[in-house]
Amino acid sequence: MASSGQKVVLITGCSSGIGLRIAVLLAKDEKKRYHVIATMRDLKKKDKLVEAAGDAYGKTLMLLPLDVCSDESVKQCINSVKDRHIDILINNAGVGLLGPVESISMEEMKRVFETNFFGVVRMIKEVMPDMKKRRAGHIVVMSSVMGLQGVVFNDVYTASKFAMEGFCESMAVQLLKFNVHLSMIEPGPVHTEFETKMMEDVAKMEYPGVDADTVRYFKDVYLPSSKDIFEAMGQTPEDIAKCTKKVIESRNPRFRNLTNSLYTPIVAMKYADETGGLSVNTFYNLLFNFGPLMHITMSILKCLTCSCLRRRTISPN
Predict the structure, then answer these.
(1) Is residue 33 part of an annotated ligand binding site?
(2) Tens of pLDDT along 216-272?
(3) Potential cystine with 60: which of 27, 118, 180, 253 (Cβ 3.0-4.6 Å)?
């Protein structure tokens, strides 16, 4: 139970990666300002979180089961919180999907949207009325630069993030009238066990029904380029957790928060040309015409990012 003065923070998707690191960072806050409710679909996967939390587990951090794809599970989870009082909701639960779209079934696509989009909507719908009544609250959504800029072979995942960005941008206007803030966290590539395994798995797949050229472009062009980008520009879950903590502690939290300053020019390029041709043609040339040059550039960037020239997290103030 939260102590007087503590803010109650509920986080989804805490079994690993970014969600786990956010939960631990807030639970171990030196000033003990947060009472963290870490949630996950299957509590059997709690061991990594419990180990990382250490002495904070059972004190400033507690666990609850939550499946963001279930209306009943969401309602039961929120109802189990004392007075349904949640000061900060951090929507982190999400799933990825990578590969040629011809090989992806409609059911797989719906599963991504069910978690990445409708899961966020369920959580916001459940906590928003109480926050509006109190005229206080902060909703944080873990988005992605892919919610701002489309990326080849990430079509469905990108679409789910675009949908979430549009929904939240609309909601943010209404919520401000009730003194409730809504913030998007927008990481680029992040080194997690999930990402590593997904990249390894898709490289081994055969993709029946997809033309040979597309499979070759995916395996021989996209995947190596993606690996270069991850190695040169990738952040850690700890980086994203620190960024998120800065955002929730800001007096005037920003709506959009890119965590990786190296991606700012990429996003700016899209909005510099209303026709969309600049970004589409640039990414086409980088991937298909200047692949070797891109590899060299990423190698140089990787060296630079090992020094103090790299600014890994944003400062919302």
Answers:
(1) yes
(2) 999 998 998 888 888 878 899 999 999 999 999 999 999 999 999 888 888 888 888
(3) 27
* Residue 244 marked ligand-binding: no
Global confidence as pTM: 0.91
For 139-159, give the DSSP string. Answer: EEEE--GGGTS--TT-HHHHH
Contacts of 182 (CB under 8 A, 6+ apart): 138, 139, 140, 141, 168, 171, 172, 175, 255
Does 185 fall in a domain? yes
Please indicate if the annotation marks 249 as binding a ligand. Answer: no
Q: 23 a known binding residue?
A: yes
- Pick the catalytic residue from 57, 157, 222, 263: 157
Report the CATH number at residue 147.
3.40.50.720
Residue 18 is assigned to a ligand binding site: yes
28 labelled ligand-binding:
yes
Residue 195 in domain: no
- Establish if 56 belongs to a structural domain: yes
Whether residue 157 lies in the annotated active site: yes
In the chain the first and final C-alpha atoms are separated, in Å, by 31
Q: Using CA atoms, how far apart are residues 258 and 191, in angstroms rounded to an integer?
A: 16
Q: How far is CA 122 from CA 76, 81, 156, 211, 230, in A?
A: 12, 16, 20, 38, 32
pLDDT value of residue 20? 98
CA distances from 141 to 50, 119, 233, 261, 311 (A): 23, 11, 22, 19, 22
Q: 124 near 70, Cβ under 8 Å?
A: no
Q: Tell me: the pLDDT tens digits for 265-309?
A: 888 888 888 999 998 988 888 788 866 555 555 554 455 555 444
Q: Which domain holds residue 108?
A: 7-190+235-262
Report the number of distinct structural domains present in the chain.
1
